[in-house]
């Protein structure tokens, strides 16, 4: 499991990072609610969706932060 280290930045940048985490948390909660047909439409299996939805909000690719 990897850990994200916050960059040395001002409070505005840190607030944006927390905002990204909240967005990801929301996306993952929505992913939990999709049925098999909807998941197939976006190219995911039930297992893949469940695995993704159980990841913590801060566990995301760096490109989501825009660093």
UniProtKB/TrEMBL annotation:
Q: Pfam families, per this entry?
A: YjiS-like
**Superkingdom of the source species:** Bacteria
Do you know which InterPro entries this protein is assigned to?
YjiS-like
Where would I find the YjiS-like domain in this sequence?
A: 17-45
Q: What is this protein called?
A: YjiS-like domain-containing protein
């Amino acid at each position: 499991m990897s850990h994200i280290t916050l960059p040395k930045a001002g409070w505005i940048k840190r607030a944006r990072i927390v905002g990204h985490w909240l967005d990801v948390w929301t996306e993952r909660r929505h992913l939990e609610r999709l049925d098999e047909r909807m998941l197939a439409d976006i190219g995911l299996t039930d297992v893949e969706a469940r695995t993704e939805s159980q990841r913590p909000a801060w566990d995301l690719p760096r490109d989501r932060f825009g660093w």
